[in-house]
Specification:
The structure is a homodimer of 217-residue chains.
Chain A lengths: L1 E5 L3 H12 L3 E6 L5 H10 L3 E5 H6 L3 E4 L6 H8 L1 H4 L3 E4 L4 E2 L7 E2 L7 H8 L4 E5 L5 H5 L10 E5 L2 H14 L6 E5 L4 H6 L1 H11 L4 E7 L1
Parallel strand pairs in A: 1-2, 1-4, 2-3, 4-5, 5-8, 9-10
Antiparallel strand pairs in A: 6-7, 8-9
């Protein structure tokens, strides 16, 4: 599948590398095509990986991962271009973290709004699915790093888009019954507002290789 | 132990009833001593249970549970009186839910603040511990309703207060290693901001008898 990964940070590089390993044609997008991280990643990962701007990457893809910093995601997607996102599944893994007040970060948006909803509202033709933002970048593509059963979430307004996203999650190693559909895109509030608890759990347990299993009667 | 339970809703009644069963002397507090819910509860639970106003209940206690609605908690604790809270462990199980915009509820406070912190700031002599707000009222006092291992959180600025709260959680049936210390009272942001996710999990799984197990490497 032709997949664009927008963002060249740890999340973007981890997901893009995994997608290449899985045999997908990956275009990785950065603000500028001359990005050092981008060039380095293409050099490491090889022939199936293509670097470019956000616009180049999105235009070349059938499905898009938003792995940019949450505070910059709307600008990055604007640069990618609404036409290049229209009709495509857009998997938003970003967290709207605000580090301007120091640590721990605050959220740039929460409570009556979420980044996932903002992206869907700004790009109504894109089929936005929020997912993977509740685990760190290594666990995203290698859930077996965390022992036992644990869950990952999807939400969005387009049922088929959620199914397509879930298929990719299964390719990443998430068992089908570990993928929980939280509902429409407004459920991104829940997924994003979990981050302050995740950060405290990271502090309490001293590892980012953690996730939650939902236990129920 | 002489324990005050402030709030006569489902959470307060469930916790107060469990405390009576465990042999504690429980004073349940309401806005008015003539509250129907209060009178009914005392009638049901019997001799060891004493009803009264918030002030009566707090004054008679060595430890206080805040089980009032989060949007009314600061007013209720003001009515209880700072003198009657001073030096006491105050276990805050409330969620700052705002139902004024319909369902699902928003939070009245979040992100750079939490109800737990507001209570600690308003009553600096109280030894506030945020806990139990991440599960529903039945699971609070009967964690075995949810099968398997799962976690409950404590946070607060006073280490001994957290230990005392943890002892009560153990009396409720929470195994010692299920109780996770998230840190100081500002971690209440994480515990409270988990609520939007909890509500979506409730929707996804169709039961409120749910909780999370933190899995980690």
């Amino acid at each position: 599948m032709k997949i664009a990964v927008l963002g060249t940070g740890m999340v973007g590089r981890t997901i893009a590398t995994k997608l290449v390993e899985l045999g997908h044609d990956v275009s990785m997008g950065s603000r500028t095509a001359e990005s050092g991280a981008l060039t380095e990643w293409v050099g490491e990962v090889g022939g199936r990986a293509i670097g470019g701007t956000f616009a180049d990457a999105a235009a070349a893809s059938e499905l898009v991962f938003n792995c940019t910093a949450g505070s910059a995601s709307l600008r990055a997607l604007e640069a990618a271009g609404a036409e290049s996102l229209a009709g495509k599944v857009l998997i938003d893994v970003a967290n709207p973290l605000d580090f301007s007040q120091g640590m721990p970060p605050l959220l740039t948006v929460c409570n009556d709004e979420s980044l996932g909803e903002q992206i869907q509202a700004a790009f109504p033709e894109a089929r936005v699915v929020k997912s993977l933002n509740t685990v760190n970048h290594l666990v995203m593509t290698d859930p077996g790093r965390v022992p036992g059963d644990h869950h990952v979430f999807v939400c969005g307004n387009d049922e088929r888009a959620k199914s397509e996203a879930a298929s990719l999650l299964e390719e990443f190693g998430w068992p089908p019954d570990s993928i929980v559909d939280l509902g429409d895109i407004s459920a991104a509030r829940g997924a994003e507002m979990y981050l302050p608890l995740w950060l405290r759990l990271y502090g309490a347990f001293g590892t980012g290789d953690l996730n939650i299993e939902v236990r129920r009667a």
